[in-house]
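Chapter review: from sequence to fold.
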Amino acid sequence: MKFYIETLGCKVNIYESEAVAYDLLTHGYTESSDNPDVQIVNTCTVTHVSDSKSRKVIRQLIRENPNAITVVMGCYSQLDSDALMKLDGVDIVIGTNNRRHIYELIEEYRLFHKQINKVVDSKNYTSFEELKLSRLHYHTRGFIKIQDGCENFCTFCAIPYSRGPIKSRDHESIIKEINELVESGVKEVVLAGINTGTYGKDLGNISLAKLIELILLNIPNLYRIRLSSIELMEVDDELLNVLEKYKDRIAHQIHIPLQSGCDSVLVRMNRKYLMDDFFKKVEIIRNIMPDVALTTDCLAGFVGETIDEFNTTYLNIKKIGFSECHIFPYSKRAGTKAFDMPNHLDPNIIKERAHKLQLLAKELKENFFMSYLGQIVEVLIEQKKDGYWVGHTTNYLEVGIKDDNIKENDILNVRLTQLMNGILIGEKISWNLKNWILNHTLKII
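The token string follows.
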């Protein structure tokens, strides 16, 4: 039996798809996109566009492989399983749980050829669903799911309804999985969750900061931990102290969703901070990690956003100087509080504002990358692409090197020489040359 998985959305979805793939492989399946017997679509519902893209991918795969068993899982299927059950060719629908039972569900469908809907109310998802993962497509960086669910209920967001309440994974299970990945050659792990910073709040005896420290103490051979998206209010003193204490082994990249740079919009969004809070926390983080790459998400054209509110957001994004911004045009989400708010903006205005923020984001990213020209950085090599060995620095600068004497998972000193097509190009240097350059620079100064 051959299977194929198409994954949309976030790092958590990537992890969950990898875990499902691993489960099928252990049951004797092989993975192939060429005429698969089973095709699985892991959907996303973060925006209205995500819903549309999920449906498009499902229909396309059914057209291409009409005889395959089609399984739909993930956030979109959790919220709209009835619509998916009506799509001709969809055989099995699960939501954001029951992923560990996909093999059994496929076998059930093969036996009875009867459509299956295993979606249940996300409010009933009260415990973390353990998914076993001991293999990765790439052996340099591994995504580790440590948490699921969200209880913030931002007025624009459907995720709390699709993922349910906060659920944290047992820390011993996390450490065991990371240790297995490190033993297989993985150098960096990314701790991922739907609301990563809330890790442990449902368990009561652990926090994200404590988890990071336990991982680093128990797995000394782990080169680096990288955090996925974390909300501002979860960057507390305990976590900041851990960032300071272990900054040589924690990636200097922090992704903190902003969503809006204007206080009045943040209030309408039901965000839990104001801009003064954001500025103060950014200053503390930069004092700990002066080279930190601060990345963010922002919505353009939220309900009732005036031109003055938009301009305030624009100026504050520029003032903070994010190294990368993911800009999303606001889209109405049925079932969210914002859906029923008055004064929704014209779609053309939303599109125009999103475009302006995207241009600013492009400028900020280029400025951040350009500021590193001439510097020596440490790069973890991940893959070969378009004739270059490509990897990332601790602060997620993407770096390409042309050198035949490089292999995956090498950790190199690289002098950055130019910016080309959004990637910093550099040349490998030896430790001795690095020390000579640094000493020579110090003498000149």
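Two observations follow directly from the output. The first strand starts at residue 2 and ends at 7. The mean pLDDT is 93.
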